[in-house]
Design a protein that fits this description.
By secondary structure, the protein is mainly beta.
């Protein structure tokens, strides 16, 4: 069975969920993450909202992106929020947003759901604030 279809089915039944992911690539304005649980790879653009402007320092040689005290680099573990965006009845897209590490103006609030009887997403006290 196709992992992407399976992920869409799971996420669409929950509407939204937070998942562990790993950074595969770091770009000037984005990170490419892999959600191992579903085998999904996605680009998360690091745009700040209009009220908060965030300055990112990109080091191409080290594949590192720094904002304040937060550094994002290859193979770092992050938490992403996966949701299904309904563009139309026939077209649905998976959307990923950064939850943790917390970058003011970029990160979104976490959603805490239980996925299975033994599989829980991180509790609020396990999220790091930088």
């Amino acid at each position: 069975e196709d992992c992407a279809l399976q992920a869409k089915a799971v996420v669409s039944t929950q509407s939204t969920g937070d998942e562990d992911a790993y950074i595969l690539f770091v770009r000037r304005n984005a990170i490419v993450v892999l959600v191992r649980r579903y085998g999904l790879e996605s680009t998360i653009f690091l745009k700040s909202d209009k009220q908060n402007t965030v300055d990112f320092a990109y080091e191409e040689e080290k594949c590192k992106l720094t904002v304040g005290k937060v550094t994002l680099q290859m193979f770092d573990r992050v938490i992403v929020q996966i949701s299904v965006e309904d563009c139309s009845i026939q077209h649905r897209k998976l959307r990923m947003k950064l939850v943790n590490p917390i970058i003011p103006g970029v990160s979104v609030e976490p959603i805490y759901v239980t996925l299975g009887k033994d599989d829980h997403l991180p509790k609020p006290e396990t999220l790091k604030s930088f």
